[in-house]
Amino acid sequence: MAPSGRKHAKSQPRIIPGGFSVLPIQFDSDSATQHTLYIKEHKVRAEKTSRRPLDRTLFVLNIPPYCSEAVIRDLFSQFGSVQSVELRDHPGSSHESELKLSKLFTPASKQGFKVGYIVFQNSSGIAAAKKHDYDVPLVVSTEQHPVKTGVQKWIQEYKESFIQPDNLQEIVDSFMQDYDKRKEEEAERQKKEAEQQEEDEEGWVKVTRGQKGTKARPHSEAANKRTLQKEMRKKKRKELMNFYTWQHRNTQKEHIAELRKKFEEDKQKIALLRAQRKFRPY
Amino acid sequence: MKKKRAVAEDTAEMIPTDSSDEEDGNGAPVKAKKGKREESAEEELVYHPVKLSRSDLYRPPTAEELNQLKETESLFHCSLLKMQMEELLKEVRLSERRKQQIDSFVQKVTMLLQTVPESAEVEVSDLSWLSDAVKVPFLLVPSITKGKFHMAPPASIDLIGSYPLGTCTKPHIVVDLAVTIPAEILHPKDILNQRYPRKRALYLAGLAQHLISSSDIGTTRYSCLHGNRLRPVLLLTASGKDTASFTLRVHACPPPGFFKPNRFHPQRNNIRTEWYTGMQTSLTERSEPPTPHYNSTILGDLLPRAHLQFLSAVSSQCSAFSDGVALLKVWLRQRELDQGTGGFNGFLASMLLSYLLMTHRISNTMTAYQLLRNSLNFLASTDLTVNGISLAKDPDSTAPSLSEFHSAFQVVFIDPSGHLNMCADMTACTYKQLQHEASVSMQFWDDPTVDGFHSLLMTPKPMIRTSDHVFQLCELAKLQSSCKKLNLLSELMDHSGNYVHTALPFILSLLQQGLGQRIHLLTHSLSPDPEWSVESDAPKHKAQPPLSFGLLLRPDLAVSVLERGPPADSPKAAEFRQLWGPRSELRRFQDGAITEAVLWEGESMCQKQLVPKQIVTHLLQLHADIPESCVRYVGAMVDDVIKTGSEVPSTGEEESLKVVQSYDDLSRKLWGLEGLPLSITAVQGAHPALRYTQVFPPVPLKLDYSFFDRKKDSKALVPKEEKPCPVYITPITVICHMEGSGKWPHNSTAIRHIRAAFHIRLGELLQKNHNYTYRPCPKHLDVFKDGFVFRIHVAYHREPQVLRESVNAEGLLVVRDNEEAQALEMSTIHKPLLTSTLHGLQQQYPCFGATCRLAKRWLGAQLFSDDLTEDTSDLLVASLFLQPSPFTPPGSPQAGFLRFLHLLSSFDWRNNPLVVNLNNQLTAADYTEIKNDFMASRESLPVMFIATPKDKKLSLWTKRAPSVQMLQRVVMVASESLKVLEQQLMDSSQVQDVRVVMRPPLDAYDVLIHLNPKQVPLLSQAVDPPTVTYSRGIMPGSAHSSGGALPVVDYNPVSLYLAELREAFGDLALFFCDPYGGTVIAVVWKPKAFIPAPFKTSHVSARSVQVTGDEANTVPNVEAILEDFQVIGKGLVKSVEARTEKWSF
């Protein structure tokens, strides 16, 4: 499956506007058709995390749904040893999740076409990949490494969906311990902050913004709204209705206006219905 | 090809466009119609909130305007209704242009008629003077009559009936022209023995012979008035392009006053038995049987001019008279009551209004709206079968009395002369139907929650949709022997040999007696007036279409298998035995009584549904000599598609009940669990099977363990790769709410973990206490019980709230709605609530569940189940039961299903919300509020808007689907299906079966993925039962109630495959599949995705690049995608068939 050096020298890699190299890929050796991967070195102005070093990361587009991270790692090791593979639904900056969740508790990822970030051990891998011959497609499923799809895959997944209650309990317990610990730490921190606001030995109080204990329970939006509404209601209650003659006259005028409006609305509705021929009984 | 492409585009297009052509699989006429509607939709037909300028709104009102405003406000509960009626009247009234056409044609015909040549006098039976081109419109039985006849120009020609009165309405404009036969042709004795009717027929034939040669006349045909063969008429249409727009009906009448009215007393005889039978009898004139129908027939010919005078006098006093009659006619026509023999036609409608005016029940100043309302009110409250009414103010002494009329006729309404019963042909059943319709109309008229106008005047009520069960008598000739069996010779003579009309009242009363408490109402179709060309003989009586009868069932009593009669020793027992014949037997009951009884067969609900069929066929066979083969009973024909069960056929009621019972038991056991850290606050079902609406309810199965692999550590069964896909076991969702407590964490991830812990704990306890096999997952807990798998979700009521809360940068707690929270609320709050509400509805209406199942089966079969979800369609069906107007709640699944299709196809989704008033929680004010909110934000709301008491503004259930295009297609397919299905059901000559509406047209799709039936677990549920069956790992026998290995749950390769396809190619195509055993996945490309797009990193999935110069454009890589279909579905996909060359452009 790997391209031979001889061929490599003869034919040219294909590059399209935008700087992407085109890399054909097919499911197995019998496949009649190919998808194409679009690859390019990963280049962004502000990459914050260290997980995608700029010089060693290859950016791959249009990875077919049957390619798992392991398959991609396998395919690209021919260009140089691969350090990590990250598959995403959409291109974008990576965000590391704060805590490691068990696979069971993370939402299932979409099984569509993916975007990949492949980090090689050294930067030569990128060049090798970009130089890859256009006429020699990558092959996903080989005899050595068959990729399961269809019924086989679904049965496999069904089997894997089982989890021993004990194991599950363990995962839950460890997470909850962890969670409680973090909760405690948080409480500890808040307590410390609260303490800081108390008198120190010399009788000084450190004054910070806000009242005591504001950090513990932040203001909520809903509470704000409620107070505003209360004010409005109060204002309304104080108003007098139909007290002066002009007010009374106004109400009457409003009533007629209301009737007129309804009449007009109905007329318009009719016009609409008539235009749609909604009055023909048969 | 090109057309087809345009076609597919429309379905696929997700963004609303002004698409011009709609695809359809069913033929050209629809296309044309569709195109027209599309066109009109293109015009700016959007509702904009009215904006009146300030000066317009606040200008001082004139007195007139104020009056008008006040009137519309007070007189009608909505001024809209008044305007709607006015618009309707405009639609049915004749235009001036049409009137001119009619007048000129009438003039032409009058001129022609006056020039009829005279002919020599011959014997009546001598037809030699007629040319061969014209036949006599009369059944000459017996063939010999005395008398002389010759042709002569008519004595006078006048317009009569609705046209001169101004009550003529569209469509089918009929103008009546009375031609007076000159007195010298007739003889005062002609009333005897059909002599006059025969002369009348001869005269018409003579006129036809004269007219047929004229170029002004388009077609000449014979018909007969109200289906009465003694009153033939000549139908003329104008030549030229307006031929079909109106018909001129020529009647031949005797000169006014030619016969003495007292000769037609209902108790007098005018047909002699000796003449009719041809045998010598010893009867004198006094002892001859009376011939009331014959008498009223001839009398009817004598009076039309007098009636016209009378009606004109009345209508000239009341300005709204003609509008009132027009409305009443529309109302009658929508109920199929105005046409045919014994119907309540327009003439009777005018007479009824005159009666109400004369008796001061309505005043001359009332509007058309009030006239309609008062006449319906009168009809609903007055029984003309018992208390007849009369228009005669001071009848002369020879006129018969009301009681004499009642003894001769079933329905009595006397004309102004006092001699004629205008309802002579009407059966009591027809009048009861009229009464029933009127009272139903009155019920919903005032209901502000119903669109009164629409239900009252716009919705057609064909018998097949109105009645719960329908049956037809196919071979009408068999009624001849019924007449013999029922001993109806004198009645037959009275009806001049029309055995259908003779036997009908007797059959009706027989059925009424037999069905008794089981039905609300027995109706029958009114046989249409026959029409035949002047060159052919009059058709025989049996030539008319089959008689249809409709039953409106009482759901609770109709399914009873026992007919309990009087005690054996009571005098009524003999009567009971006489009625039921050999089926009646003595039975001893649990209360010790020994009574006569009839026991009908029926074990399951679907068999019991057909008890009325057994009664009908038995009674007709026993008393009327009509064999079972002549009765075509249309009660449960459609139910076949949801029928299961090998020994006892069942449509799922029994299975659903078992599931519900098992669930109730589980729920009790959950409540009883001890040792949980928090207590359970609620256990709710959230699955269609728990509200009786699952299309194929789960059945407990005994599994063949050798068919499966075993999971080593958990003993659960797993499917084997080499075997066919195992039987599909539906997990039945149950929501288990846990008590709120401070112990719950305030973090969504932590809550999820706690729930998982609960799943484990619940499972352990259930196994320990009740020995149920269980399998905990982070998301749910599966419990195997009684052969069912229940999927328990633990829920915490504050979780959606926690999901919505977040702390923003400033430390402020903000609440933002998000999809995750909505989905959670949907599954833990809304679905269980809907399930329990609909479960209640099933208790109220026993055929609710079956209707839902039929509806969903249809949606599935037509590949719509992904767009109209189970919950949506259940709600739609619920609306049919909760707001049935103008019908009554469906009493059989078939009627319900037909109305479901009608609702889908006729509801104006664009301009109206569908309000489903579950539990009757919404008031009129709520309706207005919903409507106003809907109008205000129509554009942003789902295309199909369904409001419920708990969801007035959002239409939760239809938010995701259907899209505009899909809804359009659903509407179209529904209306086609309805049309085809009703034809199938009502027409016995149809070749195809009713399943034809369940077979989707596949030619609109771009790609078909054919599946390997071996891997389709629900294959046996397919519309057309499969020819091959696969072993799916089940054994005969009943399932264990507890224990056993966990079966393979919720493993359906087809749905897994569909999910993967949609995830991978959802941007490029739509995928459709019948979830109930469909072996084809239909694919439609989205045209948007096939427009070459510039290369963008976010938009290259499954696309290939084409480089032209500096530009790189991408298009879908179709060949590779088609191969991906194969790869992703390896083992399941048999073949991928690309039907269009879509990608080539």
Largest interface: A-B, 82 and 104 residues
Q: How big is the Rg of chain A?
A: 34 Å
C-alpha termini separation of chain B? 13 Å
Net shape of chain B = elongated
> How much beta of chain B, percentage-wise?
5-15%
Task: Write the CATH architecture name of the largest domain in chain A.
Answer: 2-Layer Sandwich
List unreliable stretches of 5+ residues of chain B. Answer: 1-46
| Rg estimate of chain B, integer Å | 35 Å
Number of beta-strand segments of chain B: 37
How does the helix and strand content of chain B classify structurally?
A: alpha+beta
CATH class of the largest domain in chain A: Alpha Beta
Please bin the fraction of helical residues of chain A.
Answer: 40-55%
Q: What percent strand of chain A? A: 5-15%
Largest sheet descriptor of chain B: 6 strands, mixed
Assign the CATH topology of one domain in chain B: Alpha-Beta Plaits
The CATH class of one domain in chain B? Alpha Beta
- Report the CATH superfamily of the largest domain in chain A: RRM (RNA recognition motif) domain
Low-confidence stretches of chain A: 1-10, 212-218
Please write the string of helix (H) and strand (E) elements of chain A.
HEEEEHEEHEHHHH
Question: How would you characterize the overall build of this protein?
Answer:
The complex is a heterodimer of chains A (282) and B (1145). Chain A is an alpha+beta fold. Chain A has helices spanning 5-10, 69-76, 124-130, 150-160, 165-196, 221-238, 245-275, and strands at 14-16, 20-26, 35-41, 57-63, 82-88, 114-120, 138-139. Chain A has two domains: 5-160, Alpha-Beta Plaits; 240-282. Chain A is extended, with a radius of gyration of 34 Å. The termini of chain A are far apart. The relative contact order of chain A is 0.10. With 1145 residues, chain B is an alpha+beta fold. Chain B has 36 helices and 37 strands. Among the domains of chain B are: 3-33, no CATH class; 463-531 and 540-561 and 600-635, Alpha-Beta Plaits (2-Layer Sandwich); 999-1144, Alpha-Beta Plaits, CATH 3.30.70. The chains are: A alpha+beta (282), B alpha+beta (1145). Chain B: Residues 175-316, 320-459, 465-624, 639-843, 845-1000, 1002-1136 form the Nrap protein domain.
